[in-house]
Amino acid sequence: MNHNRRLSAVIAVSCAIAGMGLVGCEESTKSDSDASATRTTAAPKETADEGAFTGAKKFEIDGRSVNVSCSGAPADDRPVIVLMAGGGDGLEKMAGIQKTLSGKNRVCSYDRLGEGASDQPDGTQTIRSTGKVLTSVIDRVAGDRPVVLAGHSLGGLIAARYAPDHRDRVKGLVLMDATSPTQTADLNKGIPESATGPAAELRARTLAILQGGKPERLMVPDGEVRSAGDIPVEVIQHGKRYLEQVPDYGPDLERAWSNGQRAWRGVSSRSRLSTATESEHYIYVDQPDVAVRAIERVTSQAADRA
């Protein structure tokens, strides 16, 4: 394997293992992203309800500009769905499932600081500080309505960390191959410091991101899974293995990732774990029907409990 191919493999694996997008992580679905970008950057159409705009709109939150996209009509009996992309991905990455879901739901997505069309963070971010931005986004797009958070990868981890402290607002979760709650420990155990070649590059690159590297400069410490009560939760893990680039460590890393998905079930006493058998890390791209059905189920269950 030449240097360029080897580096591309390392980056691709880093996206999966860290649960974060690194440079080049969007290449496999670039055509979908390019087509979606037009839909998510259209000028917003305002309605009488301040939060019920359609299209993309920027809000100032604590002095930083945050890019938000919403579609679909608000329904009094259904929560607002908030989509949360993985690290390295802007909101346009989820435009396809946002459009599908908005047929009968109010659906919004946003670029976290450092991603997409939002401002860069003014320093290192924490789970708490990125959660404050999420609260402000929810206040603007949902008002007093409850929300269902549907997060992929790093977006799933943030959603699962956020929900226990915001039970009054978050009434359901869908976690799509969410970053493991013990990702740093998993990586340190799975790839030793003595590793060389692509595995060593993967280890160093991923740990740097987890410790506050670009693009979001977000510190992602390991931690216990806390309960958000008995809200409906669906955890979906990928079914296709794709870690052949580090054959000495791939099987252990895959097992640790699966253990992390099982651990996320602890966020609710009403959680369900399933496997998207034909998907790699980007479940909502590889099998969008699986993602859409899970989000709609959780949203309907949350509405029935309201």
Tell me what the structure shows.
- 38% of the residues lie in helices and 17% in strands.
- It contains ten helices and eight strands.
- It has an eight-stranded mixed beta sheet, sandwiched between helices.
- A hairpin with a 2-residue loop joins strand 1 (55-61) and strand 2.
- Helix 1 (3-18) crosses helix 7 (197-210), helix 6 (183-190) runs antiparallel to helix 7 and helix 6 packs antiparallel against helix 8.
- Residues 1-13, 16-24 and 26-49 have low confidence and may be disordered.
Task: Describe this protein with a few key phrases.
single chain; 306 residues; alpha/beta; 8-stranded mixed beta sheet; 10 helices; disordered N terminus; hydrolase; AB_hydrolase_1; hydrolase activity; AB_hydrolase_fold; Alpha/beta hydrolase
The separation of the N and C termini measures 56 Å
Low-pLDDT parts are 1-13, 16-24, 26-49
Q: Give a count of the beta strands, DSSP E runs of length 2 or more.
A: 8
How much helix, percentage-wise, in residues? Answer: 25-40%
Number of helical stretches of at least 4 residues: 10
Provide the β-strand percentage band.
Answer: 15-25%
Protein name: Alpha/beta hydrolase
GO molecular function: hydrolase activity
Keywords: Hydrolase
InterPro entries: AB_hydrolase_1, AB_hydrolase_fold
Ordered list of secondary-structure elements with their pairings:
Blueprint: H1 3-18, H2 30-40, E1 55-61, E2 64-71, E3 80-84, H3 95-101, E4 107-110, H4 127-142, E5 147-152, H5 154-162, E6 170-176, H6 183-190, H7 197-210, E7 232-238, H8 250-263, E8 270-276, H9 283-286, H10 288-305
Parallel strand pairs: 3-4, 3-5, 5-6, 6-7, 7-8
Antiparallel strand pairs: 1-2, 2-4
Helix pairs in contact: 1-7, 3-10, 4-5, 6-7, 6-8
Pfam families: Abhydrolase_1
InterPro entries: AB_hydrolase_1, AB_hydrolase_fold
GO molecular function: hydrolase activity
